[in-house]
Amino acid sequence: LLVDSRLPALYSGLDELVGIKGPRDCIIKLLTYEADSGPSRQQLKVVSIVGCGGLGKTTLANQVYKEINGQFDCKAFVSMSQKPDMRKILMDLLSQILGNGSPMCFDEQRLIDKLREFLKDKRYLIVIDDIWSTSAWEIVKSAFPDNNLRSRIITTTRIMDVAKSCSANLQEYVYTIKPLNHQDSSKLFVKKIFPSGCGVPQHLKEVSNAILKKCGGLPLAILIIAGLLASKYDRKDEWEAVHNSIGSELGKNHTLEGFRRILMLSFYDLPHDLKTCFLYLSIFPEDDLIVRKQLVWKWVAEGFIRKVRGKRPDQVAESYFYDLINRNMIQAVGVQYKGNIYGCRVHDLVLDLIRSLSAQINFVIAIDDKGYESSPRKIRRLSLQASNLEDQEMQKLVSNQSHIRSLIMFRAFKKAPDLFKFHALRILDLSECNCLEDHHITCIVNMFQLRYLSLPCRITELPEQTGNLQHLEVLNIRRCMIKTLPEPIVKLGKLMCLHVKSGVKLPDEIGRMQALQELESISIPCNSVRLIEEIGRLTRLRRLTVETTSTTEKMGDQEVRFREMLVSSLTELGRNGLESLCISYPHGQNFILDSLFGSGCSLPKFHELDIKNYLCWVPRWITMLSSLVHLCLSMYDIDEEDMRVLNGISTLLFLHLELRNPPEERLVIGCDGLRHLNELHVFCQHSTMPLTFAPGAMPELHRLRLEFGARETLRMYGDFDFGIEHLSGLRDIRVDINYYSGGTDMDASIIHPNRPLHDVRMHVTMMFTLKEAAQSVGLQSATKELNLGTDFQRTFVQIEDLDNPEVLRKLQQLLSPESSTRNQ
Q1: Tell me, what's the pLDDT at 539?
Q2: Which intervals hold domain NB-ARC (predicted)?
Q3: Which of 469, 415, 405, 423 lies closest to 439 in space, CA to CA?
Q4: For the chain, how many structural domains are there in total?
């Protein structure tokens, strides 16, 4: 499920959004209405959404995107900014459209050419969010060919002239978003403060109406004020104090000053530690996706987190993160089971304010493409984001700045700054600075205050003296090409997180690193038996990734010792509080986990298990894991006994299953198991979907993802009746169907429940191999792949670039029987 969030409503279910359905349907009508029956109906159409900041333009565009993207061959959603990095935006577009990593070596023109070439025969849907100038639009527009395939573009902007330019000065394709009316404003306000549905208490109704009037129907202002009032409980005097502190600007017209007053009120209400953490967010670029785990460890490294008895620093930092979410100061991205959140974004209005505040007190200096007037004599934290920053400017900026505490680079600069001058750094994040090579980082061994170090992909070797960095807490070299860590690394007595990629040889004496909490990952074939033994000494380890994908035959006489040590070390870690294990091992070595978990070993905190290799049955000991909430399994075979075991895990909230060989009879998930499951993934790839859901099954399931072969499922079971209509709590569905030749009519009604679920989002992707489809009608030469998307009512098929009209005619007959309601 694609999630792109800048307002909290974006990650909510459609039933939780307020005032969105009418505007959403109106935009969809503008996009799909085709009054002209001639050639012009096939032309590219651009619909612009215009309105002031904080009105919910991104939310609206994202809801439209989710609703209709299944009708298009290609789609992408990107955000601009006031001074956009056009190369980065074009790379993001190409990456989303191609579905792979960003091509780092192309210039703007080459990226435009690549996009045009790929899109020339595709029907595409593109969202360009937050455009500030016609010049930026003209550049990005040049990447989209008008190929007469009814492609669509949605833009959002605050500026009417820009909106008109995007929509070719056709006023009918410009949608002006309006503030929420009083009824919707009140509904949003109440949902955020009183989520139980009890409504505003009688003694607060008058003051709440007065507060809403001052918010002027601006969703972002309502959310921030609601986040502030949620901590005031129901004390009327405090609500009145908030009301009296808000100016009336927003109620009269949507001025920036009115919004700033509301935001400042919420900012001053934050506890001191939270103010510091909130201001730190000004170090990130506009529209940046800020990953929660990385942010939390940076807060810890900065020393922002106060000590709380009985809690680790990262746990306290996590509570700060969720407090800012609850106060609507930052916007959640990727809400997972149990309310876990992957990351956040900062709304650009909020970012502008905290950058201003940070600059005033010299807390963070961020240099982006807008430039900078002058830098203070002493910079505490420096964020380099300007892709156009010349070497001379950079060297001038960082000269005589030996006292900088944090340096983060967010762009691939032509030349790296001279790092020898940075002696006082606590945080050095160069993970996106791909111009760096080994000789650039030799000086890090003299950064004795360093607590957080993240290095880019071209680094192949760490200096031996890295072990002298006695304060280092986080070392992230996951992107690097490093093959061996130097032995002195074990002297890092305060290191809590060590993230390396697969295949790295670690020092044998790793047991000396007693502060380690996260270790990702250990590749057994690259390391010694001694290392496996030493892992058991890491008494504070919470998260561990182990890869033993190669066979152990090459280990000869050490094989038995290897087995014993791995089981022994994992057992010891379990006793000491291991919480999460991701493990892969060769087929036939199930004894590793059987010996660990089947021995009755006490695992009081263990809650997450991910087994990468395929199993022949669900281990029976899995029900003994009394705190297990997250489980990922890959199965060769699955039967009723396996389902009985899974149903017996009453604590489970997330379940991911990959299945290869289906049973002869469908397996039923009934009402007696998995009662608290929030999220279920079942991936069968080119095999059948063997599960069906009985009435009353999994009442708390909110998200469902399925992937299966259509032909195989039909052959085995005869239909696609999975009982989805019985999942009463379902909010999000994603279905990926591998649909190969067989000539079977399949539409959304087969997958969708018999009764309508109006607030369930469903994304269905059907994948055909055109060669096989053509062969089924006696045509051997067609080799192109065909993608078919569907929504609830319609299925759209696009067959392109076929020189032989007979191929086209027969494929249309194959894919569109008369009984089908598909549109060609």
Answers
A1: 94
A2: 42-195
A3: 415
A4: 5
